[in-house]
Amino acid sequence: MIHKSAFLFPIFLGAILLSVVHAQLPKTDLSLIKQELQMTEYAQDPEAGAVILNDYGEADINVNSNSINLIYKRYRRVKIFKESALDLSEHEIWVHSGKITNIKGTTYYLDGDKPKSIKLEKKEILTEKMNDGYKSTKFNLPQAKEGSVIEFSYTITYDNFSHIRPWYFQTSYPVAHSEYKTRIPEWFSFVPLFKGNLQLTDKQNIPFNSSVNFSTSTRSSSTFGGPVTTNVRNETVRFKGVESIYVLDHVPAFVEEPYMTTIYDHLSSIEFQLQYVRWPNRPVQTVMSTWEELAKEYMEFESFGERIKQTRLKKVVKGFPLADKSQNEKVAWIYDFVRSSTNWDGTYSDLAKTPLHTVFQQKSGNSGEINLLLLVLLREAGIPAYPVILSTRNNGKIQRIYPLASQFNHVVVLAGLSEGEILLDAISDFTSLGMLPKADLNGAGFLVDEKQADWINIQPMFQQDMNKMLQLKLDPSGTISGSVKHICKGYEAANARKRVVDLEKDEEEYVQKYMLKGWTDVELGETSLKALEDRNAPLEVNAEFDGSDYINIVGEFIYIQPMLNEATEENPFKLEERTYPIDFGYPLRENFMCNLTIPEGYTVDEIPKATRVSLPEGGGSFLYQVQAIGQIVQVMSQISIKQTEFQPDEYGNVKAFFDHIVKKQAEQIVLKKSE
Amino acid sequence: MMLLGSFSHLPAQSYSALLISDEMKKDAHGVIRSYVKEIHVKDERRAELYEERIITIFNQKAARELGELVVSYDDFDKIGEMEAEIYDQLGNRIRKLKSKEIEDMSATGSSFATDLRVKVATLYHNVFPYTIRFSYRKTIKGLFALPHWIPQNYTSLSVESASLKVVAPSELEIRYKGLNVGEGPDISDKDGMKQYEWHVSDLTATKMEPYGPPSREFLPMVYLAPGRFEIEGYKGSSKSWKDFGMFYHQLNLGRDKLPAELASTVRELTQDLSTPEEKIQKLYSYMQENTRYVSIQLGIGGWQSFDANYVYKNGYGDCKALSNYVKSMLAAIDITAYPVLIKAGDYATDILPDFSGNQFNHAILCVPNEGDSMWLECTVNNFPAGYLGQFTADRYALIVTPKGGKLVRTPASLPETNRQNRLAKVVLDKSGNAQVQVSVETSGFQQDNLTEFIDGRSERERETWLRKSIHAKSFDITQYQFEGTKMTRIPTYRFQYELDARNWAAASGSRFFLAPNQLERYDQVPKAVKDRTQPVVTRYPYLDTDTIEYQLPDGYILESMPEMPIKLESEFGTYIANIDFKPEKGVLIYTRHLMMRKTRRPAEEYKDYRQFMRDIVKADKIQVVLSGRT
Prior knowledge:
heterodimer; A: 675 residues; alpha+beta; globular; disordered N terminus; B: 630 residues; eight-stranded mixed sheet
């Protein structure tokens, strides 16, 4: 991503370094080692398999003899309690252009009650060439086992850098002391950004003064063609800077919970974004300016703006059968064309590495390539269309205080309709027109345009909506026969279409697997599937069947599970409490409706009582009702969750809500033979 | 001699999808139009390989599964030109992949370090059908093994024509075994070179049948091995298991010298022990306590183990190195142990015993003893000495002695070995909520699968696992305890937990519905298969027994209960469930016994297997109904 925020270095000719103050890595206090080796648990978190005793990093922008480089140093000391935490003794460093030096590793152990140590040997450090120019350097600390204290340190030097490595205070293990130090000369302005909900234990900014001695040589000639003289001028440049220290002590382990967006939205961390570079006597080079400026930059990127401008796709669009179509029909046709004629390679990008006519030819590309192709085809067909860059749920929420390209990983298209506009993402095979895949539902996107760049709210326009309808007849032997119908709308339709296609469109198998799941004694009759191909219509699946699984006949009684196999069997929320919010992404709705005709000669002895429970402030509701009308028993269950995000303090309500559903749906209908 | 590159490509018009017969299209997602593989063994050290596949793709699924050519290589191999082209349904070429579109990636996977890499070419088109053509050349240095040939390597794929040609100097005595390829190969001799050719054609698409045998029983394939070979100066032969074992033996000679410090530790640890078994146990657990498994496979290191000193110094090693380490310690006290090569995997297909050559992916150790050999799996830190888990038990393996290799079988496992016994007490209240106490004891494979999530894990990981493994409607864990493995020959593991559970039973109106089997339910019946052709293979022998004692709430009488006991018998296993109801005490005791065999039965018994499983699913769902005392 260097192209996005690279900046220029001035050229220092033969600069002689006057003073460089290198901070020292923490020294292992050998008097404490014994105590650490004897630890059997970390008092603040006895459940942890290890504790990171000291996690230390430092990023030093260092004024050097002929350049400026970034020196990154890392030190970590860990106490291992359990074998499963030995992953901490394997360390892997990925670098693209940096140089790794000075790797040191030590394992401490007790010999009797004497602390001893063993060092990592150089030849056990391996380097492997990875993809996309990355190199991975790995080592495994010797003799690491349960009870060990291990430590390692290393230095990475970057001659070219465009950002400072972020620092994660929080890891999946607890950290006793986490500290990050930056040393930045006044020529650079970085903005720090904190994430997560933990408060720093300590923060200090210590100004420093430094200077560097340049010897600049100029060659000049006093007369035309005359002798050349070389003037060497020594110049001392004094500069200021700030050393910043960020400390967090007793950082709790990060434990992932179900229904989260991405852990990176919650992990306590600090990032640094370069705002500007200002060399003495030179104009300011702005790296991070304003959102409007960023939009302009995007339009200048070769892999964005240039791709949109130079398309060579005019001819292609001329061949499209759009002549008699309205604007809305054109949008639908082109969207469907791109969606069905390209293969998404599974990677997200806000950029198109490959020219769009090549993408068109290859019929495959990353998300940026496919959606920018959609954009261009729409524009060629005369439809107003704009790119909207965004960050997917897995990539984390956008920080609006940082107008930076590096936050984005995806682009979708805003297209104009005859009235209003619509957001389109063509990488998904199964979503309908205007339905963004769940990954895109991350709050907002940024419309990129030279003139009207702006934020676009991205809210789910559809819900996951499942409707199950059954018409059944029970005979006295306990066999149920009848029909089941599923009408899947919104996200449910997209999910169901994917399931059908994954089963090679085998209707019967789909019915068995997803509609009559759990039935063991079932005879399948006619099945039918409606609107599999038309993504914009609800998907409807019908099946006729006979079965007896959910009926128990004992003596004069017949017991029926009212929801048959559709009851919610387990509460999906098993944790006692949560630290992070639940995020469903979109609203959920599930309706179940069954009309069951009971056999002659039986009467209803008992049916579950109707109930209605709601989540506070209209967040969701559950309606359940069983009623007997003559020989027909009607069962209705409606679950609706409108609120898509629940805070940890609302967790108890959500859990209790599902408990209630599980309990209610387990109640049974009892029929009794009439006397 | 120009043998490579001299094959005839199909003429362009036959790329057309219109020429495919209906028979080839039946049940097929794609058709291999032509698959040519040619291996030219130059000498003991080197071979050249050429492969070309022309495949017509009918749908999206095949596009994803077959539209990618993945060629693996390591430090011994070199990939030559790789080509990928795409043709429309009429056979017109649409485009050819540019070399920069071919990705080169590390394939280290779960290993800490390997030199394995892959080159990947991907082709897509969206107008079906279309045809793709892939080809590549590869030079293999160090001919330890030759690639096998499996033309129909994807179900729902038919094959119009496929051929394998192997050319090698006669004196190298190439070894081969063809499966489901008819008679063959055609062999010809010329100028001291031997040429072997296999050809298959018009293979219809197959459907995978659930619980079927390994695919080599019905799909065509050819196993190949060099008769003689040389790798990094080590000469070897795979003419017999004896020879092949000898190669491994020699490759690993002299790697067992113990550092003096370790030698004295070994003596100290064992000097007061009397039997060899005790000594083996002692040193095996010393290894377990002081080392961990780290996979490093670089170059010849894929087959030559790091020496004992390396493991001692670093405290880690891969399967070969750790086995060699224990072997070396045992040697220091005059106990002979041999490395054993094996094909590991919980459900791995056994090797072909009558085809000597590399079919292995793992190494263990064996201390031979007439009838009671000690098997040592050195990559697991919680097995007792002499126990092999599901990963390596009950299969062929090659024991490597100084006299060469010998094929043996590792110990078989019976259902009774792999037990899970559970005892539970459930006190129910009127609303159906319950106080639940469960104690569990597992042994054999069942304990391997369990302790993987418990031994050496942090309390947080254990609790997370426990929470996930309990399938009650809604619950809080109020107490739990893991007791640790008992290191008997067959290990056992015990743990217990208590729950505050909601909705264990359903109380509605005047009734109380209790499904007594709530600890574990079978709910999947194997899929129906029309016209089953393959035998039925079940692979995991085990025995589960549950006893759940219910204390029922006061004020209810029994309204109904299914007829008990339920007894199910089949060739695949036995199931017995029973209820013992003691109304005077308000106690109901539910018992369940399920034994499943590792077995292989003829195809026509698949319906019996389904019936058996279906009956279990039903029996697992039984319910008892209580009603308010009137």
